[in-house]
Specification:
- The chain has a three-stranded mixed β-sheet with strand order 2-1-3.
- Helix 2 runs antiparallel to helix 3.
- A hairpin with a 6-residue loop joins strand 1 and strand 2.
- The protein has one domain.
- It is mostly helical and 110 residues long.
Length: 110
């Protein structure tokens, strides 16, 4: 595919892909609400293509997921400038942290 052809192709997401993106966006809002007050700036993703870690601030990741949902693709974006790796966590860490908070709240309510 030529570089210019990608913009012209209709990028339609299937129902399952749309549902997964909506779920990811909802999860992202929870993760941000729980972790941002603790100094976490966003999520780090290990890129399979280049082998490097990519650091995404909360709003950048949200806008990228929304763009994928609306346009069927994500445009390139500027990476975080000299990110401090200690300020970013993995998606799995976020999920585990949220699960721990929910479990703790469930135990308190019993």
């Amino acid at each position: 595919m030529a570089l210019g052809d990608q913009d012209e192709q209709d990028q339609q997401l299937g129902d399952e892909e749309r549902a997964e993106l909506l779920s990811d966006l909802a999860d992202l809002a929870v993760y941000q609400a729980l972790l941002e007050p603790r100094g976490i700036r966003g999520i780090v993703v290990d890129c399979a293509d280049c082998g490097e870690a990519h650091y995404h601030d909360w709003e950048l990741l949200r806008s990228s997921l929304e763009q994928l949902l609306n346009d069927g693709r994500m445009r390139p974006h500027e990476p975080a400038y000299e990110p401090n790796p200690g300020n970013y966590v993995s998606w799995e860490y976020c999920r585990g942290f949220a699960d721990g908070v929910i479990e703790t709240e469930d135990q308190r309510s019993r």
